[in-house]
Specification:
206 residues; alpha/beta; Rossmann fold; 5-stranded parallel β-sheet
Length: 206
């Protein structure tokens, strides 16, 4: 990468669709970095501050909103807030890396509006039954919470046409290869390489 804006890759999908695993597949590629989101929810036992999320109080979050610190932010299930810090773009530019955002549909639509060149990928489960099985297997949610997550998944999937790519995650190996291919292919888009193309043309005298 040169000093151009980093490629921004958005990964969205219902809870239980496997999007976090596919994000890890993208991060296996050289020249990529994860945007660390801020959230007001409590960390799970397996989570530490600063790996996938920075955990903040609601007061701290609202102060960040007031300062305009977020590229996007949203409230999920009417309780916890999530936001993508604007500084992630600057960090990616400074480190000459492409930026991966794991965010929900609300956030993805906000980012696409602000950064039309961002590439958005929607991850779908193969069926409602399979998604329910995956959510139940985690053993973290009550029956009411499971019902809410399934309904939210249905609502989120209605926005599939707002995305550039869709991956049906029924085979993790294949889905991982697909998401990596999308990332690599997106780096080759003409508009991202126009400056370099023009330099090559100049070397030909035109």
């Amino acid at each position: 990468m040169s000093d151009r804006e980093p490629l921004v890759l958005i990964i969205s999908g219902p809870s239980g669709s496997g999007k976090s695993t596919l994000v890890e597949k993208i991060l296996e590629l050289p020249g990529t970095m994860l945007s660390i989101s801020c959230t007001t929810r409590q960390p799970r036992k397996t989570e530490g501050d600063g790996r996938w999320y920075n955990f903040v109080t609601e007061s701290e979050f609202q102060q960040m909103v007031a300062r305009g610190d977020f590229l996007e932010y949203a409230q999920v299930f009417g309780k916890n807030w999530y936001g993508t810090p604007r500084k992630s773009i600057d960090e990616a530019l400074a480190r000459k890396k492409d930026l991966v955002l794991e965010i929900d549909v609300q956030g993805a639509l906000q980012v696409k509006h602000k950064l039309p060149g961002a590439v958005a990928v929607f991850v779908l489960p193969p069926s409602r039954a399979e998604l329910e099985n995956r959510i139940r297997a985690r053993g973290q949610d009550s029956e009411d919470e499971i019902a809410r997550r399934l309904e939210r998944a249905r609502q989120e999937m209605l926005n599939y046409s707002s995305y550039d790519f869709a991956i049906i995650n029924d085979d993790l190996d294949r889905a991982g290869k697909e998401v990596q291919a999308i990332a690599i292919g997106s780096r080759c888009r003409v508009e991202r390489n126009e400056e370099r193309i023009r330099e090559i043309l100049k070397s030909f005298g035109g």
